[in-house]
Design brief:
This protein is α/β, with parallel strands linked by helices and about 325 residues long. The chain has 12 helices and 10 strands. It has helices at about 20-30, 30-45, 65-70, 115-125, 145-155, 170-180, 210-230, 245, 250-270, 290-295, 295-305, 315-325, and strands at about 55-60, 80, 105-110, 130-135, 160, 190-195, 235-240, 275-285, 285, 310. InterPro entries: KR_dom (IPR057326), NAD(P)-bd_dom_sf (IPR036291), PKS_KR (IPR013968), PKS_NRPS_Biosynth_Enz (IPR050091).
Length: about 325
Amino acid sequence: MANSLLPMGIFAKNVTFAAVDLVSIVKTNKKLATQLFTKTMGLIAEGSLRGPRPLHLYPLAEAENAFRFMQSGNNTGRIVITRTENDQVTKHAVHRSTWRFDANATYVIIGGLGGLGRAMIEWMVGKGAKNLLVPSRSGVSSKAASDLVARLRDQHVRIATPKCDVSCAAEFSKTLQDYIRSMPQAPIKGCINSAMALHDAIFNNMTHHQWAATIQSKVQTSWNSHTLLPRNIDFFIMLSSLVGIYGALGQSNYAAGCTFQDALARARAVASAYQGVSVSLDLGWLLDAGIISEREDYRQKWQGAQDIAGVRAADLMAVLDHFCDPASPLANCSSGR
């Protein structure tokens, strides 16, 4: 646990060291996990096994003191927090954000007509956004997207949904120029890139098209947004994935694109030429919006693996609420996020 070396001399005495991941055993072999647990509890009950001593007991109300004692480095044995029905604990007041999006500004949502994008759009409108530019390769092609656009326009929200491949710099540049000419009174003040195209395959079997299509959805869309959007926007947010950190079977192309987004966010964050927040959010599986909620094959893939914790749309909106806030201290931070 201390990342130290094992002395070699003890191995001459037929000593074996083995690392066992109990969580993995519980997930993959519940029968074995049950047997191990039952046997261990039996050994404890008969006195053959004994827990570490001494035990330092703290009631739940003094949990903070327990952690401070642990941090002191003077503790031996084990620290145990006990609980009773009458324990009183400190509850921190919930902070409710009150900031609003600028009703006289435009916000760009790339990939905004899919399930996740629609959820973000509704959240932004609920916080005061009145002008939205939502470029996508297919435009308003689904009933869900069409219904959303119609509903927002009934609420006097200006939402432009041009057909535009943001991975093509020339096409995206023209779309931006056309929009700016038509809406000079609503300058662009923020961008969220949720573009994603998954083409999963084992790397040895992956075609160039599968590689390029996924890379373009992450790398080219992010780079073109980085180079073509104004430098003084309040936030530049890319929705990336934990796959870029941990990897996933058949998703080397997606992992590569996500790590590029992470690097781009850091580069923008340390560059003095760019104002506002620049961040790449490495998300887990989004459970109630986006691809898992829309495609059965990916829902089964997550249920079978569950290698990365799931995220709810409400959790993502809470994170966006923090990073989109123009008063966020990260807006003037000089280190990568």
